[in-house]
Amino acid sequence: MHGLHAHEHAPQTQGRTLHWAKYYDVTVQLLTLGQSKKLRAWTIDAANIRAGETILDVGCGTGELTLLAKRAAGTNGRIYGIDASPEMIEFAREKAAREKLDVEFRLEPIEHLTFADNSMDVVLSSLMMHHLPGDLKRAGLQEIYRVLKPGGRVVIVDLKRAASRVEHIMSHFMAHGGMARGLQDLVALMQALGFVSVEFTNTRVPMLGMVRGEKRA
């Protein structure tokens, strides 16, 4: 799938949408202190992806993590990436075409997923949740829970609350002016929404953490 179709339009969303796809990968590399490739590899490892699984990457951006998920799931794996930014989706589709990887990218927001109930083995999210206001985080996580199969896994990598001066400075730049809450705060919300085995861990990248959870079997 290459480029945007004529009928596709940017969806309505209250989340912050990025439009600078050409510079996104370089920006992430800088903000993760050169650890972006390792961070994505850790995310794939944490998801424990198996051959043939069906995987959704929400807020997929330029598709870097999505394409890694495809490689992990193999030829029979069905991989989808969604983003509310037309620029990101177009860039991701072009990247998949160049690498000859069968991945479907859709232009849609996390709060209105078009996938069926209980259809995903794994849902991934990387550096996207901090773009959503609180009510949208809840709505997005509810949608993730809905589309996951019983026992399905979710892995979210994002900004955690700053604990040092350096982290506060990094938070200011990475979160577009800083933020009062962080990834740690998703744990209680996910548990309230029905996720089980929810755990927060630090990553080796300052300011970034990881939350893993499962849909009740």
Q: If classified by CATH, what would the architecture be?
A: 3-Layer(aba) Sandwich
Per CATH, what is the topology?
Rossmann fold
Largest sheet: 7 strands, mixed
Percent helix, as a range, is 25-40%
**SSE pattern:** HHEHEHEEHEHHEE
Number of continuous helical runs: 7
Number of strands: 7
* Mass-distribution shape: globular
Assign the structural class, choosing from mainly alpha, mainly beta, alpha/beta, alpha+beta, or little secondary structure: alpha/beta
Superfamily (CATH H level) name: Vaccinia Virus protein VP39
What is the CATH class designation? Alpha Beta
| Whole-number mean pLDDT | 85
How far apart are the first and last residues' alpha carbons, in Å?
34 Å
* Proportion of residues in β-strands: 15-25%
Radius of gyration: 16 Å
Read across the widest sheet, the strand sequence of neighbours is: 3-2-1-4-5-7-6
As for the number of domains, it is 1
Poorly predicted tracts of residues: 175-179
What does this structure look like?
The protein starts with 20 loop residues before the first helix and ends with a strand. A seven-stranded mixed β-sheet has the order 3-2-1-4-5-7-6, sandwiched between helices. About 2% of the residues have low confidence. With 217 residues, the protein is α/β, with parallel strands linked by helices. It has one domain: Vaccinia Virus protein VP39 (Rossmann fold, 3-Layer(aba) Sandwich), CATH 3.40.50. 35% of the residues lie in helices and 23% in strands.
Fold topology:
Blueprint: H1 21-31, H2 36-47, E1 54-58, H3 64-73, E2 78-83, H4 86-98, E3 104-107, E4 120-126, H5 134-147, E5 148-159, H6 165-174, H7 186-192, E6 195-202, E7 208-215
Parallel strand pairs: 1-2, 1-4, 2-3, 4-5
Antiparallel strand pairs: 5-7, 6-7
